[in-house]
Amino acid sequence: MYRTLRAGARTGYARENQRLVMGPWAHLLGYAKPETRGAGEADFGPEAAIELHAIQRDWFDHFFRGTPLDGPRVRIFVLGENRWRDEDDWPLARRVETPLYLRAGGSLSWEPPGDEEPDSYVSDPADPVPSLGGASLALPPGVFDQRPAEARDDVLVYTGDVLAEPLEITGDVTMTLHAASSAPDCDFVARVVDVHPDGYAWNVVDGVVAARFRESTSEPTLIEPGHVYVYEIDLWATSIVIAAGHRLRVEIASSCFPRWIRNPQTGEEPVRATAFAVADQQVFHDRARPSHLTLPVIPR
Asked: Which of 232, 261, 230, 298 has the alpha carbon at shortest distance from 90?
């Protein structure tokens, strides 16, 4: 919304007076409980507590009473460093869009792949991958250890090397996935994880795409079983510093239930489906089909 109004609000005054506050809370918690310091199993420290009512009051006082609108245009909370930072705009102009590639053997690399065989798993909507935290409304939200999900046979796990120095990721994260399915329709879920030295798998961002909506949300089309398609998955935005000694990880699956409705994999719409079908899924990461994350890396 911030970017839309900055670019397309009706007046120049409206475009120039947008403000963005991006914090580390779950839905409503930072607003209803200003003392909230985290979500799920994470505590983001004392700086995470912020009085949103006061920020809103200053905003309305400016437009209804003419008081000055002070402060930065953009305030973001940087996870990992657990501190607020002021910025001129969003997304950050100094970001470097950097690909991180899925590779053979369950690895992640900054180097593109060569000739590598695809990975595969079986997706069964009757036994979906369970939801563990994330940007959820009705379910327990926030940070939860993802290792129980990663231990399943229907979740592909790709892990990078131990970081020698901190890595800041601030902005929109996307996944470009080259994949095929034996079904006429299915979902693909991608998740970025911060792996701590003790093995704790901290979920950072994730997203889902239904194959039928790969090209259009208004005109869905089924896929040809066995054909390799390119799926662009929006993992939403974050601001986090992955500490030295940690590792980045990517999970790929075809469900995350009940956060996202199960795809029956029959070609029927999920809300009208009367049966489920098992699907064989393939994820490609070779020279011609380099599945990869695109990370907004901030130079340090």
From this structure: 298
What digits encode the pLDDT tens for the residues 185-223? 999 999 999 999 999 999 999 999 999 999 999 999 999
Closest CA relative to residue 263, chosen from 276, 252, 280: 276
Let me know: does 7 contact 13? Beta carbons within 8 Å: no
- Quick check: 95 and 238 in contact, CB under 8 A? no
Assessment of whether the complete model's pTM goes beyond 0.90: yes
SS3 at position 48: helix
Q: For residue 260, what are its two tokens?
A: 């996202």
Residue 270's Cβ-count burial label (10 Å; 0-12, 13-18, 19+) is middle
Backbone angles phi, psi at 149, to 5 degrees: -75, -40
Cα(201)–Cα(146) distance, rounded to whole angstroms?
5
How close are the terminal C-alpha atoms of the chain, in Å? Answer: 28
